[in-house]
């Protein structure tokens, strides 16, 4: 994830002054604050202190607005590095204030080609249709089962670059 940190003093005086910061290159919050402070010191207006994030590159769901908590921002970056597309999908269905790695781990069921592929895997792994005669199992509608599981609140589906990420809600 990258951010564009901009000087508000420059902005309010009609100038664009800021810096793109790749959060992968920043070790921690102190280092991020140091990069922002250096950008502010390079302003044509001495002593400026106010800044905002004017742009992001990366998953929309992990973007925390113009004035984010830097700890929360670095947490998002850390989780994106660790979990990739699955974390971005999790953020699509979770309020940023409620997001945690523990909740992610508890809820994440995997990535599938489609909702129907998840249903097929779920039905197979739970043995749900074992008591149904083999010749009748083909009549079970996996797409409808997946839709009903989502509508009933049992699972959340979130599309990502890699496929459909599935999260249990219970």
Number of domains: 2
Number of helices: 7
| Rounded Rg | 22 Å
Strands of the biggest beta sheet: in what spatial order? 2-1-3
H/E topology pattern: EHEHEHHHEHHEE
Net shape: elongated
- Gap from first CA to last CA: 30 Å
**Structural class label:** alpha+beta
Q: How would you sum up the major sheet? A: 3 strands, antiparallel
> Helicity range of the residues?
40-55%
Strand content: 15-25%
Contiguous runs where pLDDT drops below 50 for at least 5 residues: none
Q: pLDDT average, as an integer?
A: 94
Number of strands: 6
What does this structure look like?
The protein has 170 residues and is of the alpha+beta class. It folds into two domains: 2-83, no CATH class; 107-168, Arc Repressor Mutant, subunit A (Orthogonal Bundle). The chain is built from seven helices and six strands. It has helices spanning 8-12, 29-41, 70-83, 85-93, 101-107, 115-126, 142-151; strands at 2-7, 18-22, 51-57, 108-112, 155-159, 164-168. The strands form two sheets. Strands 2-1-3 form a three-stranded antiparallel β-sheet. Strands 4-6-5 form a three-stranded antiparallel β-sheet. Helix 3 (70-83) packs across helix 4 (85-93) and helix 6 (115-126) crosses helix 7. It is elongated. The two termini are 30 Å apart.
